[in-house]
Design a protein that fits this description.
Elements: E1 15-21, H1 36-49, E2 53-57, H2 70-84, E3 89-93, H3 97-106, E4 110-113, H4 119-125, E5 128-132, H5 150-168, E6 173-176, H6 185-193, H7 195-199, E7 206-207, H8 213-218, H9 233-245, E8 250-253, H10 256-270, H11 277-300
Parallel strand pairs: 1-2, 1-8, 2-3, 3-4, 4-5, 5-6, 7-8
Length: about 300
């Protein structure tokens, strides 16, 4: 019997995952959406702006972050997932099995897993799974990141996790090189440069560079100081666009409107051959129906 082909999103436009941190201490928007009602409103705003997925997280993974209790994370995440899941595909950003299970029960259909350890939950629940690479833990990852060959080591890790998830029966697998998670600015740039090699493995790739510290260091302000979190929009869009042009299937962002516009334009460049402009436009529009069908299938799992 022939092996089943790996799952891949039915779209030529890269997808946009909007970040929704229901936390008091995330590096970019900590505290802004800790209230469930405000979090849901922001999630719906991102949907209106073009987010294909809303990624709900209740525990900060910023460098130096301390873990929160399972009970507190559940309190933050579940009501928001429950409210948003009828309107958009929801992923849950967690490393805890109980939180992942509860979020899936509340309507999440994708587990965004920075620990790359929750594939058994995805297999048991019939939902998608994102395996991200991280050296260390959020508390320690940026102290002394080191690799002999960052590209080889990150790619090897993600291939191993992908193989384990497939053996367990996970149908929808994504990989994320973990920009900023136990990496220096040089590591991040090297991984971005070599994204086509990761894409060539045939597993959908998710990349998140949005507002990260290395962008501020690489694009300092007039004083020479690193640019602040709120001054990193251009760098965020530039690196997301670079990733999309390299072939990634989804970008994780805080600023959905600009990323969605960039994704639409990158999608247009992916239409190849001699198709007319009108046929190209129809193809880009038809993908929206495919996305809706994927969302319905996810809700039926």
């Amino acid at each position: 019997m022939a092996a089943e082909a790996p799952w891949h999103p039915a779209t030529v436009r890269p997808l946009v995952m909007g970040v929704l941190n229901v936390t008091p201490d995330s590096f970019s928007d900590g505290g802004l959406y800790l209230d469930a009602e405000r979090a849901v409103a922001h999630g719906l705003d991102m949907v209106t702006s073009g987010a294909d997925v809303v990624d709900v997280g209740g525990e900060s993974s910023r460098p130096g972050a301390e873990p929160v209790s399972e009970r507190e994370e559940l309190r933050r995440v579940v009501p928001v997932v429950e409210a948003l899941s009828p309107r958009v595909r929801v992923s849950v950003d967690t490393v805890k099995r109980a939180v992942a299970e509860a979020a899936v029960a509340a309507g999440a259909t994708l587990i965004n897993d920075i620990s790359a350890s929750l594939w058994p939950v995805a297999a048991e629940s019939g939902v998608g799974w994102v395996a991200m690479h991280m050296q260390g833990s959020p508390r320690t990852m940026q102290r002394h990141p080191h690799y002999r060959d960052v590209v080889a080591e990150v790619h090897h890790f993600l291939r191993q996790r992908t193989a384990e998830a497939r053996r367990a029966g996970v149908g929808e697998i994504w990989v994320d090189p973990g920009i900023g998670f136990g990496k220096t600015a040089a590591h991040n740039l090297t991984l971005l440069h070599h994204l086509p090699e990761l894409v060539a493995d045939g597993v959908p790739v998710l990349v998140g560079t949005s507002r990260k510290t290395f962008l501020g260091r690489l694009s300092p302000g007039p004083s020479g100081e690193p640019s602040g979190v709120d001054e990193r929009l251009a760098g965020s869009i530039a690196t997301a666009t670079w990733a999309m042009l390299a072939g990634v299937s989804m970008v994780r962002v805080h600023d959905v409107p600009g990323a969605r516009q960039a994704a639409t334009l990158v999608g247009a460049t992916r239409v190849t051959g001699t198709a007319s402009r009108e046929r190209s436009h129809r193809r880009l529009v038809s993908q929206e129906q495919g996305l809706r069908e994927q969302f319905v299938k996810g809700r039926e799992r």
